[in-house]
């Protein structure tokens, strides 16, 4: 099985030149799925300033291609395509 990296992306409301919007706030690499889910449940329970979050894992397959899978999502989120 390939080694996976587990991440959590949180989102917050931010003021932009065109108005307030939900924007990616913090991307954190977690040491395990348990750590990521602990942080996720803090967002879900309202124990953080984030308005949304998603947990995902990423890995490189045996074929050399990059893969990612969303594990959980909650609240408000936005997708930003960087390229």
Which strand order does the major sheet show?
Answer: 2-1-3-4
* CA-atom Rg in angstroms: 14 Å
Q: What is the number of beta strands?
A: 4
Query: What is the arithmetic mean of pLDDT?
Result: 88
Distance between the termini: 29 Å
Number of helices: 1
The residue fraction in helices comes out at 10-25%
Question: Can you tell me the overall shape?
Answer: globular
Our count of domains comes out at: 1
Biggest pleated sheet: 4 strands, antiparallel
User: How much beta, percentage-wise?
Assistant: over 45%
Q: Structural class per helix/strand content?
A: mainly beta
The sequence of SSEs as H and E is EEHEE
Low-confidence stretches: none
Description of the structure:
The mean pLDDT is about 90. With about 80 residues, the chain is mainly β. The chain has one helix at about 35-45, and strands at about 5-15, 20-30, 50-60, 65-75. It has one domain. Helices cover about 15% and strands about 50% of the residues.
């Amino acid at each position: 099985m390939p080694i996976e990296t587990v991440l959590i992306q949180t989102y917050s409301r931010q003021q932009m030149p065109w108005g307030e919007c939900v924007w990616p706030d913090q991307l954190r690499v977690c040491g395990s799925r348990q750590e990521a889910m602990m942080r996720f449940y803090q967002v879900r329970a309202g124990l953080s300033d984030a308005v949304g979050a998603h947990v995902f894992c990423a890995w490189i397959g045996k074929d050399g291609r990059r893969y990612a899978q969303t594990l959980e999502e909650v609240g408000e989120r936005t997708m930003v395509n960087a390229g």
